[in-house]
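Lesson 9: reading folded outputs for more than one chain in a single document. The general rule is that every protein is listed as its sequence immediately followed by its structure tokens, and records are never interleaved. Here is the first one.
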Amino acid sequence: MGSKKSKPQPIPDFETPWRDIDWNEKEDLEAELTNIQLNHPELRFVRILLHGPVGAGKSCFINSVQSVFRGEIKTKAFEQANAKKSCTKTYKSYTITDKNAVILPFVFNDVMGLETQDEDGIHPKDIVNAMLGHIEDGYKFNPISPLSDGDPGFVREPSLEDKVHCLVSVVPASSISRMETGVINKMDNVRKEAMNLGIPHVVVMTKVDDDVCPLVNKDLTQIYRSRKIKEKMLESSHRLGPPMKCIFPVSNYHEESNMNNTKDVLILTALLQIVKSAKDYIEEQH
């Protein structure tokens, strides 16, 4: 009788975190973001454009950011659980306010999700139009035909404030490996357009505690000890283009009714890098 084959042993997680993070710095992160100085006479805020596949958590990330600064669960952007089609239909700006209802110096724009079929989801050229500031707030997207000069909703002479100052790709850790090539190609084309324009690109990797890694699912503070999460980040870097230092895993608020300090710190850490990148871009426009 042959001996039974032994099962392959799982690769162990890291003994120490491979990226430093202070879980007690929430207040410091909030203060730094609240007090960002743009030092530009034309700007009240930096504009952050979120894009990615349907169901990645773009709207949920906006709501999570608002929740962190208000200290309670909030819903500004419309969300839909298990969405198969994009629930975002129009181009809309979302300001973020603190507990005193003060508007903070950054604004988000959400767009339709990207899909493989050209007749579904946002047309990649409209993401470029948004980056250039050509899309009017409230414009309803047409997946078949991107906005062009002369169309209603086209801003012919956008100001610096109309333009996007940082492009953020939102991708789910739970399905980055299964993202269709067509969607990846569209995201790659958008990234290349952003690079040509000098616009910084950051990746927010959502759903890190969605059965991706037992260690993280049990304790979110172990996220940078997780080999599985690092593998997902490396895969995001490989498939989407940016270096690891520009990829930030987060856990959005999607089912909780109470706030969580660990989630807050991850969200604020990602947001601070996004805002700093946007500010650097703006300073280069002088």
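And here is the second record, again sequence then tokens.
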Amino acid sequence: MRRPLNYEILKYFTTHDKVSPKEIYNSIYDEFKDHKAFKLSIITESLMTAKENGLINEDGYDLVNDELVVYYSATEEQKETINSYIK
């Protein structure tokens, strides 16, 4: 049984550093491609919410093909918090 989409997005930060929404999208695509809420915009919204709740941080910006890309990361303390709630 797979985790809910938002849980999977957060858990991604416990094993990866400085990632963009598109990187997460591509990494979990095979598992969630049939999920009706699986859209890049939903992943971005989820990351923005997690940031506002203190679970992850913005970790830089870049301009890729004339598109602004925001990168996110989690500190060790944030990773521990995520792992304590999501097994």
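What the second record shows: Helices lie at 5-12, 21-32, 40-52, 76-85.
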